[in-house]
Amino acid sequence: MSTKHVALSLIVYPPRPAKGGLGVTSEDLECLEYGEFLNDVIIDFYLKYLLLEKAPRQLAEQSHIFSSFFYKCLTRTEKNSEENPNLSLAQRRHKRVKRWTRHINIFNKDYIFVPVNEESHWYIAVICFPWLGEVVYEDSVDNDQHQRLSPALDSRSSRSCSSSSEIKKICKRPCILILDSLKASSIQNTVQLLREYLEVEWEAKRKTHREFSKSTMVDFCPRVPKQNNSSDCGVYLLQYVETFFQDPIVNFQLPLHLERWFPRQMVKNKREEIRDLILQLHLQQQSGSKN
Known about the structure:
Blueprint: E1 9-13, E2 22-25, H1 26-29, H2 40-54, H3 57-61, E3 63-65, H4 68-74, H5 89-97, E4 111-118, E5 121-128, E6 136-141, E7 167-172, E8 175-179, H6 187-206, E9 218-220, H7 233-246, H8 264-268, H9 270-290
Parallel strand pairs: 3-4, 8-9
Antiparallel strand pairs: 1-2, 4-5, 5-8, 6-7
């Protein structure tokens, strides 16, 4: 008789009493072996970890990361019986994911991260400055690159800078960045779906109409470090987000060149790093439950 492999629960992250904990099992750990595709659990776990524990606090507060299920739910094929025919296609899509932003207003954030998996290929869309209606140029003090223009403030009020510091102009641009280690072919479809989502979400949250078009919410695919095999797309997605938090894009003046954002060796070690992290958290949670 063959014995069925049982997946062992390793961690819940973030651990209780925090809400929204994600369970990671021994089976999930197997996709961290070299040559395997990362699954949605590992993607979502590490993105949560980066936001909660690795990102500088101010940048974390300016950011929101959707789970990998968000885009899947937004774009799933609809059944004829489940949808209201009086709603537009964009409204019907939005209705499926409306609950995802019950407790958050994404238009109060600077960066919205949307993991995408299409035909077993991972990449990430980063919606930047969705609250901004147009490109703005503001003064930035070199010794404080992360000073931000709050959605609640007029751009003119953000110009108080120390006279002893070098002041330069930086560009903030409402846009959708596609960070993709292979450059998928369906990018235009993805960004259009996200624009339509933003338009309906704006109406739901702000109770006014705002157009998110190719001219008001531009999309572009900066040159980024690329994978050199067929299985590391998920690892690169995670490294893009980790590097974004460590070395954020401050100036959105086009074109963006990020080819040297991080060395390939960093990605080569990432699977082992994530595996070690999960096992370390497993030991911590085990010892915590015994005390």
